[in-house]
């Protein structure tokens, strides 16, 4: 897995989510990127059940169970600031068995779906983030496949993102700061997606 | 006359005389046959006619044989046709009158002139190229087996222990570069050079000369399914395919037949500059990306980073 940066693209003024996605994809195609299928990243939220709280009165932890179409046989489970577990796809069934300890907040299911583009050694995924039936935002994931050390190629990634995202190029993701010189792993992408989804969920709360 | 010197050209005078002799021969033969046909008319007695007929016929036969002897003498003088045809028998194609439908002769002449010119230029080029000795093998081209030196140059048959020692010393030279040596296929060494967490290079050697290199990404698999080093498959990433081409250029550039360990050292020093493959911008245009590729070219002397299209 190469170094990946996941960011949100704000919806253009006076345009819908769909139209902004179309503008982005057209810019990518002008650059010379080739469409290579679709992708889907989804995230389900689980609360720790009240019965296991005990006397400590601590706030329930939120656990996120995520899937990524790039890794179809895997399932990612992570806590907000905690470790990320990469498990088999059967983990979902295990969660059903653990109903007593973790309860699924079905209304919070959020996913990003869209097309996958390849440009030279870059992989770009532009997706529409939906929660339920409504589209809430746009996610842009850029992966530079040959490099595995995060901080090495940040400048390169940024230059590439500027070429099609313009002023909306994001800053360095927080996971990069913790990596130092270790090898980038898929769990880091999922942490970025989790942060993005949480941000989008919070945004919409203001517009309700 | 027949066994004299072969005249290079046609003896034109003898030729014309021979043609005249043919005409004389023809006329005397015709006279002989006319004499036979007409017979003798204006003699009274049969004997007289017979005698005059026989004498007339004898005269005509004499003239025939005389003319034939003359023709034979002249035909020996004429000589062989000129050997100056540039294409010998194919020159006879020029006698074909239908030039626009089958322009064989003119095309043939052009092809011949072209191949002559090509041979001449190739001779000049080989003379110029031989001045600069770029040979990487022991064989000498165009020298017969008898004159080929019996012993190969000493740098091509080095003991494997020496090669191991040189490689180990180079391994210790740079901290971020590690070299693994193996000999899965006979005596040629195969090196797996790992440069930081950026790339892996497979170097196939021939005694202490570098034969071939393949550059792959750090996370790519360099082993085949049997667990042996995969020396043939290319990288999946365009940037490393480009770096492979540059590495091949480098191993042809660094050449010193008498001191191969210096060559290997220079090549490894050049390779080490790729530790900053993704971090260094191009020295010429200042950008990181050009057509989606980072600066993949490293100058051979200064080790500065350039895009492939930006290098001078």
UniProtKB/TrEMBL annotation, chain A:
What InterPro entries is this protein classified in? Answer: Mediator_Med20
* Primary localisation category: nucleus
Pfam entry (one) = Med20
Q: Which UniProt keywords apply?
A: Activator, Nucleus, Transcription, Transcription regulation
**GO MF term list:** transcription coactivator activity
Keyword field contains Transcription regulation: yes
Q: Where in the cell is it found?
A: Nucleus
GO BP annotations listed: regulation of transcription by RNA polymerase II
Q: Which GO terms describe its cellular component?
A: mediator complex
What is the protein's quaternary organization?
Answer: Component of the Mediator complex.
Q: Which family does it belong to?
A: Belongs to the Mediator complex subunit 20 family.
Q: What does this protein do?
A: Component of the Mediator complex, a coactivator involved in the regulated transcription of nearly all RNA polymerase II-dependent genes. Mediator functions as a bridge to convey information from gene-specific regulatory proteins to the basal RNA polymerase II transcription machinery. Mediator is recruited to promoters by direct interactions with regulatory proteins and serves as a scaffold for the assembly of a functional preinitiation complex with RNA polymerase II and the general transcription factors.
Q: What is this protein called?
A: Mediator of RNA polymerase II transcription subunit 20
Its taxonomic placement starts with: Eukaryota, Metazoa, Chordata, Craniata, Vertebrata
TrEMBL record, chain B:
GO biological process terms, alphabetically, are: regulation of transcription by RNA polymerase II
Q: Which Pfam families match?
A: Med27
Q: What are the recorded GO MF terms, alphabetically?
A: transcription coactivator activity
Its localization reads: Nucleus
Alphabetical UniProt keywords: Nucleus, Transcription, Transcription regulation
- Signal peptide span per the entry? none
Q: Which GO terms describe its cellular component?
A: mediator complex
**Highest taxon of the lineage:** Eukaryota
**InterPro entries with a match to the protein in the record:** Mediator_Med27 (IPR021627)
Q: What family name appears in the similarity comment?
A: Belongs to the Mediator complex subunit 27 family.
Name of the protein in question = Mediator of RNA polymerase II transcription subunit 27 isoform X2
What taxonomic classification does the UniProt entry list for its organism? Eukaryota, Metazoa, Chordata, Craniata, Vertebrata
Whichever gene encodes this chain, its name is MED27
């Amino acid at each position: 897995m190469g170094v990946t940066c996941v960011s949100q693209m704000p919806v253009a003024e006076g345009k819908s989510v769909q139209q902004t996605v179309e503008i982005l994809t057209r810019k990518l195609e002008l650059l010379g990127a080739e469409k290579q299928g679709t992708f889907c990243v989804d995230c389900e939220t689980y609360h720790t059940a009240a019965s296991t709280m005990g006397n400590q009165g601590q706030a329930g932890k939120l656990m996120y169970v995520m899937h990524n179409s790039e890794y179809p046989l895997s399932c990612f489970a992570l806590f907000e600031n905690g470790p990320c577990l990469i498990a088999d796809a059967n983990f979902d069934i295990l969660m059903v068995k653990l109903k007593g300890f973790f309860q699924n907040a079905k209304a919070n299911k959020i996913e990003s779906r869209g097309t996958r583009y390849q440009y030279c050694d870059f992989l770009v995924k532009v997706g529409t983030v939906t929660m339920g039936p409504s589209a809430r935002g746009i996610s842009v994931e850029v992966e530079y496949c040959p490099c595995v050390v995060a901080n090495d190629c940040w400048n390169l990634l940024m230059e590439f993102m500027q070429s099609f995202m313009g002023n909306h190029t994001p800053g360095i993701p927080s996971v990069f700061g913790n990596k130092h010189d270790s090898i980038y792993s898929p769990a880091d992408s999922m942490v970025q997606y989790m942060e993005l989804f949480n941000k989008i969920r919070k945004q919409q709360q203001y517009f309700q | 006359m027949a066994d004299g010197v072969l005249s290079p050209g046609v003896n034109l005078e003898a030729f014309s005389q021979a043609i005249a002799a043919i005409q004389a021969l023809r006329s005397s033969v015709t006279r002989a046959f006319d004499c036979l046909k007409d017979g003798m008319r204006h003699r009274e007695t049969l004997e007289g006619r017979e005698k005059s007929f026989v004498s007339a016929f004898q005269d005509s036969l004499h003239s025939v044989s005389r003319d034939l002897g003359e023709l034979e003498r002249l035909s020996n003088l004429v000589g062989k046709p000129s050997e100056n045809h540039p294409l010998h028998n194919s020159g006879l194609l020029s006698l074909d009158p239908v030039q626009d439908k089958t322009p064989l002769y003119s095309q043939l002449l052009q092809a011949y002139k072209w191949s002559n010119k090509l041979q001449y230029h190739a001779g000049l080029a080989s003379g110029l190229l031989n001045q600069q000795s770029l040979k990487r093998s022991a064989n000498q081209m165009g020298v017969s087996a008898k004159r080929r030196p019996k012993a190969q140059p000493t740098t091509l048959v080095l003991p494997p222990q020496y090669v191991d020692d040189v490689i180990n010393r180079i391994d210790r030279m740079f901290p971020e570069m590690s070299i693994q040596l193996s000999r899965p296929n006979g005596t040629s060494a195969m090196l797996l050079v790992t440069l930081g967490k950026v790339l892996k290079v497979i170097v196939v050697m021939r005694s202490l000369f570098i034969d071939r290199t393949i550059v792959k990404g750090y996370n790519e698999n360099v082993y085949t399914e049997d667990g042996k080093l995969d020396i043939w498959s290319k990288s999946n990433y365009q940037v490393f395919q480009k770096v492979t081409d540059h590495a091949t250029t480098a191993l042809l550039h660094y050449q010193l037949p008498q001191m191969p360990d210096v060559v290997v050292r220079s090549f490894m020093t050049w390779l080490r500059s790729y530790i900053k493959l993704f971090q260094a911008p191009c020295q010429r245009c200042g950008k990181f990306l050009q057509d989606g590729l980072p600066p993949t070219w490293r100058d051979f002397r200064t080790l500065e980073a350039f895009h492939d299209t930006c290098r001078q």
